Write a sequence for this structure.
């Protein structure tokens, strides 16, 4: 009972926040940007640029199965690696700066 | 007669929920591999671990929100803003996903014409979300590794901070 009480308000806040974001997103469908994307999609469809689901239509099923996870691994991995490297440089730099500030004289 | 129950540490709880979030997210994010039906139904289930993840870190969210315009470490401020944008992006992916549903909603008797705009937006935002999750993981990498070593590999040399990796 206590757990429900403890998490009831946060859950309501999260759901209300999601609803607000949803209501802000929906009108995007009526913008010029949306019309542009629709026009592009129609042109691409006529030109036959897309090879099935995300362009993977002709791939063998095993490759197709692995491709989804590879794409995921690459996108998350590259972004994560770059961030981690930058973070380490910043942390090292700020530690050095603190040492200089603390050093006597 | 009272039975003594051993309480699980909050760090362990967070780690287990985070592992569940990651595993479900990894499966959900590969519709080419799993097929559209699994992708859509699992996306509905994904709401539960993601809300649990937010609830377990609720104290941190409230604490940083109240101190947002006061003195805060740069990393904490970055994490807060990043996580806020991540939440918006997650909702965008989910809402656009519901609007382009080909399997789950029709199975429930709800069907509407699929707009290419939402299809494009769903694909684009899902890719951006993957990049953002990569950054999110990197920002908490030290906590993840320390907690994993302590609770999964049972090595107790290092102790992870209890602030939920935030």
């Amino acid at each position: 009972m206590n757990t429900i009480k403890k998490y009831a308000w946060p859950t309501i806040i999260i759901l209300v926040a999601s609803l607000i974001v949803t209501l802000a997103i929906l009108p995007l469908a009526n913008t010029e940007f949306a019309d542009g994307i629709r026009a592009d999609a129609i042109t691409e469809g006529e030109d036959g640029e897309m090879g099935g689901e995300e362009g993977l239509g002709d791939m063998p099923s095993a490759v197709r199965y692995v491709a989804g996870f590879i794409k995921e691994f690459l996108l998350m991995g590259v972004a994560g690696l770059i961030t981690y490297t930058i973070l380490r440089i910043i942390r090292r730099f700020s530690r050095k700066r603190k040492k200089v500030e603390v050093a006597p004289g | 007669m009272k039975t003594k129950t051993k309480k699980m540490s909050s760090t362990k709880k967070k780690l287990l929920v985070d592992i569940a979030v990651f595993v479900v997210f990894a499966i959900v994010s590969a519709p080419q591999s799993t097929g559209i039906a699994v992708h859509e139904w699992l996306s509905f289930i994904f709401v539960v671990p993601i809300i649990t993840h937010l609830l377990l870190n609720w104290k941190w969210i409230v604490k940083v929100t109240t101190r947002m315009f006061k003195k805060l470490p740069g990393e904490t401020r970055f994490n807060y803003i990043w996580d806020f944008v991540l939440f918006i992006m997650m909702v965008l992916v989910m809402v656009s996903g519901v609007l382009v549903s080909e399997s789950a909603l029709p199975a429930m008797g709800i069907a509407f014409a699929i707009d290419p705009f939402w299809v494009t937006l769903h694909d684009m935002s899902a890719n951006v979300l993957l990049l953002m999750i990569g950054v999110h993981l990197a920002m908490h990498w030290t906590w993840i590794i320390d907690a994993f070593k302590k609770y999964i590999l049972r090595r107790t040399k290092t102790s992870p901070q209890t602030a939920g990796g935030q």
Chain A touches chain B through 40 residues (CB under 8 Å). Residues 61-102 of chain A form the longest helix (42 residues). Chain A has two domains: 1-49, 57-105. The radius of gyration of chain A is 25 Å.
